[in-house]
Amino acid sequence: MKGNKKMIKTLAQLKRDAKSGKLTAKLVERFGKTDINENMSGWRKIVGANSNSIQLLTNDGRKAWLEIPCANLVEYTDNSLTVYAKGFRDLTADEQAFMNKWKSITDTDEYKKQSEIDMLSDGSTTFYQQKYFFIKGGYEYLLGFSNDKSKHYDYNTGKIKDNKVKGEIELRYEIKMNVG
């Protein structure tokens, strides 16, 4: 380690270390708060790992899984483990062009008329028109809901919530490697 720069380790290394049974972790921050409930506080042994989580022992001896949704959302060093929420990013040029194309459809008199009819009936014609347009175009996640858990469009911000972008800290642990 050079200077104050912390050495970032890979998720694969975290899993290997977790499976070794030599790691312990202390939760120091949870969703921006540092007052941790009794069952989650103190040093807890890390006893295993699988493809998307590590396993810790609770203070009462039960096993609990810490889900790690994506390697991009984890930062692991010799003395800390931080799990981030998905962050927001602007739309790419292609995504914006696709959204603009959809907007040009919704601005037509024909679409507006059908939308009015849908408001008085079951509303399904324009809904399915939009759904098929986005699916056929390969941008289903721009609907704001889809099976793609890695990213989706957020209508409140007009941005993409993407697991390749670190957002707010969800969990932060102090980490110790037990020798012996």
How many strands in all?
8
Estimated radius of gyration: 23 Å
| N→C terminal distance | 23 Å
* Main sheet record: 8 strands, antiparallel
The share of residues in extended strands comes to: 25-35%
Large-scale geometry: elongated
Instruction: State the domain count.
Output: 2
Average of per-residue pLDDT values: 88
Helical stretch tally: 4
| Percentage of residues assigned to helices | 25-40%
Write the layout of secondary structure elements.
Layout lengths: L10 H10 L2 E8 L12 E8 L2 E5 L5 E5 L6 E3 L3 E10 L3 H14 L2 H12 L3 H14 L13 E4 L4 E19 L3
Antiparallel strand pairs: 1-2, 1-8, 2-3, 3-4, 5-6, 6-8, 7-8
Question: Which characteristics define this entry?
Answer:
single chain; alpha+beta; 2 domains; eight-stranded antiparallel sheet; elongated
Notes on the protein architecture:
Strand 7 and strand 8 (159-177) form a beta hairpin. By secondary structure, the chain is an alpha+beta fold. The chain has two domains: 11-85 and 167-177, no CATH class; 93-157, no CATH class. The radius of gyration is 23 Å and the shape is elongated. The chain contains four helices and eight strands, in the order H-E-E-E-E-E-E-H-H-H-E-E. The two termini are 23 Å apart. Strands 1, 2, 3, 4, 5, 6, 7 and 8 form an eight-stranded antiparallel beta sheet that branches. 28% of the residues lie in helices and 34% in strands.
